[in-house]
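Final report, section 2: Outcomes. Of the targets proposed, Cation diffusion facilitator family transporter is the one most frequently requested by collaborating groups, and we therefore present its record in full.
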Amino acid sequence: MAHNHDHAHGHNHNHAHNANKKSLFISFILIATFMVVEVIGGIMTNSLALLSDAGHMLSDAVALGLSLAAFKFGEKAASSDKTYGYKRFEILAAFLNGLTLVGISLFIFYEAIGRFFDPPQVIGPGMMTISVIGLLINILVAWILMKGDTSENLNMRSAFLHVLGDLLGSVGAIIAALLIIFLGWNIADPIASVVVAALILVSGWRVLKDAIHILMEGKPSNVDTEKIKTFFQEQDGVNEVHDLHVWAITSDFNALTAHLTVSEDADRDKILADIEHYLQENFSLEHSTIQLEGSHAHHHHCN
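The predicted structure is given below as tokens.
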């Protein structure tokens, strides 16, 4: 049986982890502060577009807060009770995130329908001022989050998607404010809020889908199980590969287990060394457990 853990990767992981935490904390403070401003502004100007953007900012603040909590929980050491520690909490946070986004978008759709039939008076200049400040805040937060690991880490990506949707929402609110100021089109306000809601729904659904895939022990998208199985079977002395399982503990921590039936004269140490090197080089597999069995061994398939 072989166990493999890449310590060099661990060092890089810690560096990215700290960068992620720092960017999330600064972003959380900025978003939470401006959300309060936007709620007050939305009520004072009677703008659903601003209130829907504030709703998105609330989900941003919750997203960033949950992501931050997920990183703190993820740092807790593994125990005999939780052998992988609390790393999975990150995915639960992303799942709640996605759920919140979908709920908020449906609520905005519902509110906007009434406004289409009876567009209320909206104070355009006030809406314009708050929307521009919102856009600048969102650009700053998006830039800060981009310094984190938004490509590999699902939690960081979900927080980044929130802010990106918010940024587009601010652009929508600015356009609506211009239409209200210059053309008196109050209907532009519910139109802008529906656009924001659609953006929220799309990003929420994506995050939800990815989180569910990991919670259901789905195969990580960057791992080709057929390619791995073929490589295993091509090793000298390997007769059969069975019970090959690949899953993600969290978004940037994949695990693999496999049983290999080998001939009696097989060089077991070489097989294990070659396999471990291959998995690290090609799939960045953080944690692999390979069990080698003699050709006469009795085994149970646990697929």
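The beta strands are 2-5, 238-250, 253-262, 287-294.
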